[in-house]
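Fig. S4 source data, part A: sequence.
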Amino acid sequence: MAAYLIRRLWQMVPTLAGVVLLVFFLFKYFGGDPAEVLGGLNASKEQIEAIRQQLGLNEPVWVQLWIFVKQILTFDWGKSWATNEAVSNLFATRLPATLTVMTPILVLDVTLALPIAMWVAYRRGSLTDRSIMVATTVALSISFLVYVIIGQYLFGFQLGWFPVQGWSDSLATNLLIYTPLPVLLAVMVGLAPQTRLYRSFLLDELGQDYVRTARAKGMGEGVVLFRHVLRNAMIPILTNIGLQLPGIFVGSFLIEVFFSIPGLGREVLLAVNRSDFPVIQAVTIYLAVLTMVINLLTDLAYKLVDPRVVLK
């Protein structure tokens, strides 16, 4: 295990180096001139040149690349061009709001979709199974924007159960008052594809020879499903969960905008609209690192759910 972990961490180095180079050259040669972005339309040539000198844009490319690498290693990206706020402080103050909303969504997606998928897989071919599959197909066909508009109108304005916007400094207040509506709508959207996917994983296992053998030995369908099928289906299920985790931040963009949540997702959208390069670069690099770490943890989790898995 230790040898595998060290080897995987070492393999992440060239991948991360490739991401750093890609981000650096994309922003340098295709992102526009940062000095002109900072200077604005009314800046003189002397002012733009002074900004270029201050940012080190007149230095050789390899010097600029080294400055970029040092920013990544020291977590010091300077200040936001739009708000003049330190990028590190922006992460520290916006990330908790994003996690407050997106973590319950991820947990509920998994904990609700898996038992529903097991139930319909157990009753495969029945009217219940077909009805749920039709309902999930319809749910998949509706845009998230429609859920937001109808949800805010019905639960917020008509019934008055939840506020449609707002945020506070209290975690308990946010969890009990401001997050239930966006979490409810996001789970309604995410439950359909997850249920269909987990159902297909379980049905694939139900068609295997070991399931027929277990039934021939007299095991009940529930025992077969929980003790054998679920254990073997956990490998693709864990893979899907691992793919979902980086989506916590990507999926937060629309939710935070629609519900005015001061999270990292909304800040990224504002940074894109403002051409705020330091914020965009920091989010891109750290999201890539997070994705690689999650992939590693997912591979390690395979060994925990199935000891037969050999890590090489």
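Fig. S4 source data, part B ends here. Residues 91-305 form a domain with the MetI-like fold fold (CATH 1.10.3720.10).
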